[in-house]
Amino acid sequence: MSDDAQPLPDCLTPGLYLVATPIGNLGDITLRAVDILSRCDGVACEDTRITGKLLKHLGLSKPMWRYDDHSEQRDRRRLVDSMRNRAVALVSDAGTPMISDPGFRLVNDCRLEGIPVTSIPGACAAVVGLTLSGLPNDRFLFAGFLPAKEKARRETLQELAATDATLVFYETGPRLLKSLKALGEVMPERELAVARELTKLHEECRRGMSDGLMAYYDANPPKGEIVLLVGPPQEQVPSDADADAMLRTALETMKTSQAAAHVSKATGLDRKTLYARAMAMKSE
Ligand code: SAM
User: Fold this and answer.
1) Which of the residues 115, 192, 200, 260 has an alpha carbon 20 to 30 A from that of 146?
2) Ligand 1 within 6 A of 128 CB?
3) E-strand spans in 123-165?
4) CA 129 to ligand 1: nearest atom
5) Closest approach atom of ligand 1 to CA 170
6) Is there an atom of ligand 1 within 6 Å of 199 CB?
7) 227, 228, 229, best to mutate for ligand 1 pocket (most atoms within 8 Å of CB)
8) What superfamily would CATH give domain 126-230?
């Protein structure tokens, strides 16, 4: 029998447990999350009504305490102190705590006080949106919500435009058109995706350029929750003249086949075509 299969003790080790909850579909909660919620001494949450509904759905009843990072420092201190002999689960209204949700200060204080912290992973809208969009996901940058004010929104986008990665934002229906417009102005050549109502009945993921998406959502005002994604900057395909110039420079120090391979690697252009071009240049 492996260690993993040992029977679980009734009580959890005191400390803080970060528990991810569903972002829509109530089936999206892990067995481990349910186990922690059922054995913890209480749940710190953003909204006791929302968390109360989830606990009821799971057939659980637990003490709940309201928590957000703006809570008085004195209240946070009390909560952290209580974790010396109580197991406290932190949940947010939906998804993974601390991903555009409270918890950062609590975890930081626990670490400073030597209180054990355990994270129980699960649903996160940013990851669901990213995987569903089909946009490149080898590198992505999660940037939370864009600023509400136009100038700050544009400055944030200008700052992020140079990042060689898919950008992931949280968005709301009323602000979507403004963000699409700003994206069209700051990054007009980038492909976008709007992932809406993820894991819910009316889930949709729509890809396109800013103009097309603006036209669609102008005609169909978006309801519900949204993840807005921006594909990475496209690599520039060099012009024939640029490729020739690179070949000419390479040919000064390399053999024809080496020069073709070198320029092919640097530009992504076909090696055989470059080789033929280099041969032609040599006989010109
Ligand atoms: N902690 C959450 C998580 O792990 O995804 C995010 C909380 S943040 C306060 C709420 C934002 O997440 C929403 O405004 C929306 O942008 C995004 N979101 C949450 N649930 C979503 C869903 N089902 N579909 C699309 N976006 C969602």
Assistant:
1) 200
2) no
3) 140-145
4) 25
5) 16
6) yes
7) 227
8) Tetrapyrrole methylase, C-terminal domain (3.30.950.10)
Q: Which two tokens stand for residue 30?
A: 């892990």
98: left (phi over 0), alpha (psi -120 to 50) or beta: left
Query: In terms of pTM, does the model score above 0.70?
Result: yes
How many Cβ atoms are within 10 Å of 146's Cβ, its own excluded? Answer: 22
One digit per residue, the tens of pLDDT, for the chain of length 284 reads: 455 666 666 789 999 999 999 999 999 999 999 999 999 999 999 999 999 999 999 999 999 999 988 888 888 999 999 999 999 999 999 999 999 999 999 999 999 999 999 999 999 999 999 999 999 999 999 999 999 999 999 999 999 999 999 999 999 999 999 999 999 999 999 999 999 999 999 999 999 999 999 999 999 999 999 999 999 998 777 788 888 888 888 888 889 998 898 888 777 788 999 999 999 988 88
CATH number for domain 15-123, candidates 2.60.40.10, 3.30.460.40, 1.10.10.10, 3.40.1010.10: 3.40.1010.10
Cα–Cα distance, 142 to 124 (Å, whole number):
11
Cβ of 98 closer than 6 Å to ligand 1, yes or no, is: no
List the domain boundaries for the chain.
15-123, 126-230, 240-283
Three-point CA angle 254, 255, 257, nearest 5°:
115
102 lines ligand 1 (CB under 6 A): no
The ligand 1 atom nearest the CA atom of 20: 4
Taking each helix axis from N to C end, the angle separating 256-267 and 271-283, rounded to the nearest 10 degrees, works out to 130
Residue 125, ligand 1, Cβ within 6 A: yes
